[in-house]
Write a structure and sequence with these properties.
- The protein has 9 helices and 2 strands, in the order αααααααβααβ.
- α2 crosses α3 and α2 crosses α9.
- 53% of the residues lie in helices and 2% in strands.
- By secondary structure, it is mainly α.
- It has a single domain, classed as Orthogonal Bundle (Endonuclease III, domain 1), CATH 1.10.340.30.
- It binds zinc ion.
- Zinc ion binds next to loops.
- GO terms for molecular function: DNA-3-methyladenine glycosylase activity; metal ion binding.
Length: 186
């Protein structure tokens, strides 16, 4: 059997991180609900480790109505308080506000017949596959993520800086940044 090689962050005994690397990260998935989930998780990740978020992922799922955009878009002040008191997630006022706000933006889009996936594909019609030899070559952001970030802010999204958006694009497979030798690149 050929030896399995991984990006170094996925080459770990931490099962959640390894499984996420092997089965999810970089895999093209533009399901509307999944896009919202990853946008929320990536915005909460800002300043923290991704492993921290993965360990709290099920708590986030529970706290944010299974990442149902319509349901979250109708969250009330009481829901906001509930989230601020939920020790299972990251209790950050700005991030919680942004997650609810972003569901409202997406809900409006859906009502008007627009969707997140179409918006993203206007910038990235086909997944971008980078061929980096080393993880030190993988950028934290680029011109494209800056452009998408700028347009999303214009559309009313919050907490969507170029770095968060770059990570988000990697997560949903619009940018494939598994390093060249990684067995999970394709
Ligand atoms: Zn990899």
């Amino acid at each position: 059997m050929p030896e399995i090689k991984r990006c170094s962050w996925g080459d770990t005994d931490d099962e959640l991180s390894r499984k996420y690397h092997d089965e999810e990260w970089g895999k093209f998935n533009l399901d509307e609900k999944y896009l919202y989930e990853m946008l929320v998780l990536e915005s909460f990740q800002s300043g923290l480790s991704w492993a921290t978020i993965l360990y709290k992922r099920e708590n986030f799922r529970h706290a944010f109505a299974d990442f149902d955009v319509e349901k979250v878009s109708k969250f009330t002040d009481a829901d906001f308080e509930r989230l601020m008191n939920d020790a299972g997630i990251i209790r950050n006022k700005l991030k919680i506000n942004a997650a609810i706000n972003n569901a409202q933006v997406l809900s409006n889009w859906h009502r008007n017949g627009n969707c997140f996936s179409t918006f993203l594909c206007e910038f990235i019609p086909n997944p971008i596959i980078h061929h980096f030899d080393s993880e030190s070559d993988v950028p934290a952001k680029n011109e494209l993520s800056a452009k998408i970030s700028k347009e999303m802010k214009k559309q009313g999204f919050k907490f969507v800086g170029p770095t968060t958006i770059y990570s988000f694009l990697q997560a949903v497979g619009l940018i494939n940044d598994h390093i060249e030798k990684c067995s999970f690149k394709y």
